[in-house]
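Working notes for the structural subgroup meeting. M.R. asked for a predicted model of this chain before we commit to crystallization trials. I am recording the input and output together here so anyone reviewing the notebook later can reproduce the run.

Input as submitted:
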Amino acid sequence: MTDGADTGVRKQGQERVELRIGLVGTHTRRDDLEALDIWLRNAPVLEDALERGEVALVRADSPTQSEAMGGELIQDIILVVSAEMARSVAENAWRSVETWLRNRRRFAGPEEAPRVTLDGPPQGPGAGLSRDTDDDAHGGDDEPGEV
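Returned structure, recorded in token form:
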């Protein structure tokens, strides 16, 4: 599915925001991405919104294909949500990502350094929602209105 695909979340006159969740630093990236996708779909804080159609969770080709091996396309998880719900969904999804990552790191090999990022759009609604598990300070939790 491409980034511009109609996910059914958008209502007439309602702007949507795409929050991209990327995963790097593991030897089993495809399996880990699938596990994270399932984890997010079953997260109690997102499950109801997914069932009501307020949030869509899809996979799309990653804009950074540098990790592609053997021609395999790298994918990211995309949360598509209304602009009004973007901050709340990003915070809830991020808490679920952090829990999943703590569990994944327990099983990581010594040469693995699992890392997850959440990126909102660079400007407009949803800007400033980016998070990175490598950020120790405050996880990119900008105040509303900061870009």
